[in-house]
Amino acid sequence: MPLCLTAHFEDNNMRWILLVITLILIIGCSHTQVHLYGKYLSEPEVERISRLLQEGEFLVDVNFLTFPESITRNSLVYSLMLKEPSELTRLAKVASNLGYDIHQEVPLFSNNHAFTHESIGLFLIPTDIDVSAQYLLESVFGTYQSKSCQSETQLILLENKTYSLVNAKKDVLLSGGWKVTQYPYVQLSGAKNDPWVAPFEVAVTDEIEYGVAVSNTYLMPLSDYVRFDECQFYKGEVQ
Questions:
Q1: What is the pLDDT of residues 32-47, one digit of tens each?
Q2: Beta-carbon neighbour count of residue 108 at 10 Å?
Q3: Amino acid 10: pLDDT
Q4: Which of 162, 167, 178, 173 is nearest to 145 (CA)?
Q5: Residue 140's CB: how many other CB atoms inside 10 A?
Q6: d(CA 220, CA 217)
Q7: What is the Cα–Cα distance from 138 to 124, expressed in whole angstroms?
Q8: Which of 161, 176, 177, 214 has a 20 to 30 A CA-CA distance from 187?
Q9: 91 or 209, which is more confident?
């Protein structure tokens, strides 16, 4: 074989070898993306879990989004097109070592939370948190507009179990605490130096407002209360 052809042949071989090595390195260095849902985790716990996942060669993206209603236990959510299904087993093992046993693996998507062929959703819930009860609380707290009242007011139920009743000028008329006694019953109470209770019933109705479908949550008073001006309170969510 002429020298020039031999050199050309060896050069092509070297290019193919380098290309194969590059592809092997790319495949070997690719890591599965883990979307860690930290809504129910403390900040130190999120940091601990993220660090150990990264040490396990996972790429970690943390968010604090609301869980889909179907997720009430430690879960993995993944695409059916996941490139390496064995990554589910590996991730479940890492989670178990972190103290979170995975109870279910949900394929493709859960509600509106979709995942690609290179990512897995990791939903972790500490043992001291009742997610079902949390869903109920989340469905109740918020800002309610007044209805059937003598004057315009707003009832604001905060996530920390306190409330305030404000007028149109945002002056606080009443404040105190609230709790779900047994769904659908909610109890508002006064301050410690002014003890009183006012029970309400939660009612959710689907209505049409200005041609738009709306789901309204009402707090219906179970008795007449001068403090609340015999009001109904409601908050709406467009469907």
A1: 899 999 999 999 999 9
A2: 12
A3: 54
A4: 167
A5: 21
A6: 10
A7: 18
A8: 214
A9: 91
